[in-house]
Structures are given as C-alpha cells and as structure tokens.
Amino acid sequence: MQRAMRLAVRGLYTTDPNPRVGCVIVNDDGVIVGEDFHKRTGEQHAEILALQQAGNAAAGATAYVTLEPCSHYGRTPPCADALVNAGVRRMVAAMQDPNPLVAGRGFERLRDNDIEVEYGLLESQALALNPGFVKRMQSGLPFVRVKLAMSLDGRTAMTSGESQWITGEAARLDVQKLRARSSVILTGINTVLHDNPSLNVRLSARELGIDGDVRQPLRVVIDSGLKMPADAKMLTLVGDTVVVTPPGNTATLPCEVVSVEAVKGKVNLVELMAWLARREANEVHVEAGAGLCGALLQQRLVDEIVVYMAPHIMGANARGLFELPGLERMQDRIGLEIIDLRHIGKDIRITARPLYDQQ
Asked: Which residue in the list 35, 47, 283, 304 is annotated as catalytic?
C-alpha cells in the first residue's frame, strides 16, 4: 500500500478534479505484476492501467488501491467491473470513496463477485493525499488553503503595502508547487490593483516531474465593486480567470464575470465556495491581503494555513496577516494546530490547521 501511495502522489499536479489514486497488483508469491497511477481526468484510472500491465497474472492476485474502485460510469467505465473481469481474488483499499455515487458500492460489487475486500489500511495517508476531493464530496465545499509570507515579527507588508519580496527564492518556488496542486488560485481585487499579480504556475513540466502540459489552476478574483482592470496581467496569461461580483454589477472584461449572492454589498464567501465546488474545485489556494484572509478565517472557511516566515524584522507599523475585528479577549482567539514545520531555504514554513472550537 505504501508503494501505491507513492504512485498516487505522482498525480498530485495532474489529476484535478479527480482524486489522486495509485494501484499495485501482487500475485500469491508476493511479486508485483502490475502497478500504475491515475494521471489526468478523462484518462484511464489506476486500476485499469495496473491490470493492463498485469495481464493474465491478475487472475488470483491481490490489488492494493489507495481509494475504493469506482462502480459507476463517469468519464470512464467502472474499475470494480474491470477487477472482477480480470479475476482478482482480493482487493485492499486505503479508504472508501466519499463520492456519493460510489460510497461503498464498489466494495459491494466486488463482494457480490466473491472477491475478498478489506479497507482502512493507511487510511490517514489516503485522506491527506486528497483533502479537497474528500471535503467537496462530503460537504459540498472545497478545501481552502491560505498562503502567507511574514517577517519574524509577524508582518506581511510595509505600511505602504510593499511586500516583494519578504521570503527568499526557495520559498517562492515552494509556493509554485502549492499553486500547481490547486484547482483554484483565489485573490481579492485590492491585491490585483496594488500588485498586478500573475497568479499562475511558472514551473515547467520537468520541474514538477510530470509528463505533458502544466495545468493552470482557475484564477478567481473577488471584486465586489467590479474594479478589475481590463489590462490586468493575469488576463493576458495562459489559463482562465473569473471575476466574481455581486448581482447587478456589469462590465466588459476579457474574462468570465460571475454574479454571486452578496452580504452587505460584498460577495458572500460561503456561496462563493459552494459555487467553486459545483465547478469541481477541490483545493482553493488563497493569496490575498489581510482583509480577505481574515474574512475567510472569521467565517471558518479556512482549512489550512501555510506561512513562510522570513528572518527579518519589519516593525510595528507594518501590516499584519489577518484583519480580525472583534478579537479583544484571550478567549476570542482562534487556536491553531501546527502539523508541519520545516526550513525552506533560509525561511521557515509553518503549516497549521485552525481549531475553530478551541480557544
């Protein structure tokens, strides 16, 4: 199963909006006769590719899969049927598929055809591999990851708004990988007006370790006043940009403009996330200012915070990470669980999960 997990990781930057899945087929002598991973949406799933490699050796073998084999016709035929037809004797899955169209039906199809089924092996690793797909299927919302860069004293921009560059080159390259794994890169109009960012993936296929073209995540700009410049840099780049605004706003822009319900004149962030999930967005990568980051955190929409901390001081007058009005007492603070801490070049990367119900 560990080998199947390592194979699945190879689809980290390419499978969206499908989950990352690996499969290893082993005969009774413990010899691997077939293995592969799902590469891109619309292409064959990991189980099919591994079965093709195994050929007749799949009969009587055990299939190790990181996710329950699908049992329905989607973009491709059911993998459960392929395992049955190949004569596989036993199937071990890391986790059940959270997709309501599957959700145990794949296991049932296998058991009905006298295939031994087990699941739960390395389940936590499987869940960590596909946080966005799992959350979208279970809640109708994407997994939201907020990326921030700060100085040692917790500042993310000077008073003037100047912020390039807080961190070093290694950290900026690391951010490119976070972008590459995401379905959406989300920002606010103030960031666009101030920085005119590209918000694209600038690593090559070779640098990402993939075959084929680099997938550009959908760029989404929250623009409640519809101030998006028609000549914004991101609108000239490969990939699609969507400007999200409240109903009633109109403008002619060289990109898609979408109306989303408003609250007090601003885009309803919960409705926005639900809309993104309906567009099959699994992981939303946020690069924005303190206002939008704070609003997302305050509405409990943030699942993960990635902070790159640089070894310098920017001073008390520089800008903070989150605008969070109303946090006046210690009991009002938002707790965090640090799940990873490591050096990235000269900077430190802190990965944390908000603990909304703990103080």
From this structure: 47
